[in-house]
Specification:
The structure holds 2 protein chains of 2 kinds. By secondary structure, chain A is an alpha+beta fold. Chain A contains 11 helices and 14 strands. Chain A has a 5-stranded antiparallel β-sheet with strand order 4-5-10-6-7. Chain A has a 4-stranded antiparallel β-sheet with strand order 11-12-13-14, with helices on both faces. The longest helix of chain A is centred in the C-terminal third of the chain and has 41 residues. Chain A starts with 6 loop residues before the first strand and ends with a helix. Chain B has a 5-stranded mixed β-sheet with strand order 2-1-5-3-4, with helices on both faces. The longest helix of chain B has 14 residues. At the A-B interface, helix 2 and helix 6 of A face strand 4 and helix 4 of B. Chain B: Keywords: 2Fe-2S, Iron, Iron-sulfur, Metal-binding, Oxidoreductase. Chain B: Pathway: Alkaloid degradation; nicotine degradation. Chain B: This is (2Fe-2S)-binding protein.
């Protein structure tokens, strides 16, 4: 048996789960699919005295669209996200990020909430929630609160969740119309953590200028990151005037420290980072441009029909 | 640390045991059920040798605690062939196309491919490669495995695979 010893708890609902987390404090860890936590236990990088298993919290699973928001339950598996027609239609960036996570055997167990709460700096979903300005719902014995993605990732493998707080759902804004979404990463082997990756969400105004954009970076720091200088440079500019390669260099240029490890030096990783930002931007821009053209075509056809 | 009683169905038969919570499903199957066909390579989720079906879905048994599988339906490589010993279509294809050499990784490949073809009965080569990416083989160079999966694919590929129940 490789993992260290711990006591095991299986609460039947969220109240019981957060009650246990509050009672057990820093010695407890919540486990969902376990696809990050069990390897950490096996390698003894994690050594909790108590595990609180979330498997009976059925209410945390599922995808629900309401108004302009899609809510994905934290316990929804990555495989379920991949199968969801609603996610593909309304939050395409999540749908496109999912096949890049591990392998299908991992995605059968791994959950959306587990990936976000684990907060690996090289993982896909954290960069996606940043790029989309998603909102994370957390429950504790004190009640429920909403944490904007921008304030969720606080450090290496750490988040804004308190010890007694449980991530229960993630709310994604539905962006349709003249929008484009893309995620690009480079990994040496399929399923490995990426050396660097980027998620881009952008929206055009009716004059073809960038009305809003979010660029999420992964593998490029000790936390998942936004690229505010690159976003500011692109926002308000006409799509045709933006050089994606230059934007990639801007995004990487603003990073404090790019990590170096066995797989890539800091210089190499920064280079790859600039390249994936440029690739993701090109694909997202192409999609947004195509949708803007379709929309203009529909409008022209309607006007012709009405005229 | 208190032991926990777990009950599950393994290859169709009921199993129960009192286990320490840190026991993985892989160790439960090997040591408590005597089903040593589930192989352990890395024991931290990289190699895929320990892949089993949990409620019909392929998972790494080293990344599931036995206590998490309480109430589940498990199929190991021992449950893939017919009860009379006739190899499944996937197993026969691995044999016919040299999809194995030393055989250590083979149980994980067979279980993964069984689930993969059930869900993707007519995959492209690219989909096959992606479907195989979660299992490591150090002998074959993968080409025989690719051939085996291609041979096992087709309209009736999923016929013998356990249904997904989860």
């Amino acid at each position: 048996m490789k993992p260290p010893s711990f006591e095991y708890h299986v609460p039947g609902d969220v109240d019981e789960a957060v009650g246990l987390l509050a009672e057990l404090g820093e010695d407890a860890k919540a486990i969902a699919g376990g696809q990050s936590l069990v390897p950490m236990l096996a390698l003894r990088l994690a050594n909790p005295e108590h595990l609180v298993d979330l498997r009976r919290l059925d209410g945390l699973r599922g995808v629900e669209e309401r108004g302009g928001t899609v809510r994905i339950g934290a316990g929804t598996t990555q495989a379920a996200v991949a199968r969801s027609a609603g996610v593909a239609r309304s939050v395409p960036l999540m749908a496109r990020a999912t096949p890049l996570i591990g392998h299908f055997q991992i995605r059968n167990r791994g959950t959306v909430g587990g990936s976000l709460a684990h907060a690996d700096a090289a993982a896909e979903y954290p960069a996606v929630v940043l790029a989309l300005d998603a909102e994370l719902q957390a429950v504790s014995p004190r009640g429920t609160r909403t944490i904007p993605a921008a304030g969720f990732f606080t450090g290496l493998w750490s988040t804004a969740l308190d010890e007694d707080e449980l991530l229960t759902a993630i709310d994604f804004p539905v962006r349709r119309g003249r929008s484009g979404f893309a995620i690009e990463e480079f990994a040496r082997r399929g399923g490995d953590f990426a050396i660097a990756g980027a998620a881009v969400a952008l929206e055009l105004d009716d004059a073809g200028r960038v009305a809003r954009c979010g660029i999420g970076l992964f593998g490029l720091g000790s936390t998942p990151l936004r690229a505010p200088a690159a976003e500011a440079a692109a926002t308000g500019a006409a799509l045709a005037d933006i050089d994606p390669d230059e934007l990639g260099r801007t995004a990487i240029g603003e990073l404090d420290a790019v990590p170096a490890d066995l797989h890539a030096s800091a210089d190499h990783r920064a280079h790859v980072g600039a390249v994936v930002v440029a690739r993701a931007w090109r694909r997202a821009a192409e999609e947004a441009g195509r949708r803007a053209a379709e929309e203009a075509g529909h409008r022209a056809a309607e006007e012709a029909a009405n005229g | 640390m208190a032991d926990v009683t777990v009950r599950m169905r393994v290859n169709g038969g009921p199993r129960s045991a009192s286990v320490p919570p840190r026991l993985t499903l892989a160790d439960f199957l090997r040591e408590r059920c005597g089903l040593t066909g589930t192989h352990l390579g890395c024991e931290h989720g990289v190699c895929g040798a320990c892949t089993v079906l949990l409620d019909g879905q392929a998972v790494r048994a080293c990344l599931v605690l036995a206590v998490q599988a309480d109430g589940a339906e498990i199929t190991t490589v021992e449950g893939i062939a017919s009860p009379d010993g006739e190899l499944s279509r996937v197993q026969q294809a691995f044999r016919d196309h040299h999809g194995l050499q030393c055989g250590f990784c083979t149980p994980g490949f067979v279980v993964s491919v069984t689930a993969f073809l059930r869900d993707n009965p007519d995959p492209t080569d690219e989909q096959i490669r992606d479907g195989l990416s979660g299992n490591l083989c150090r002998c074959t160079g993968y080409q025989g495995i690719l051939k085996a999966v291609r041979a096992a694919a087709g309209p009736s590929a999923g016929a013998a695979a356990p249904e997904e129940t989860g």
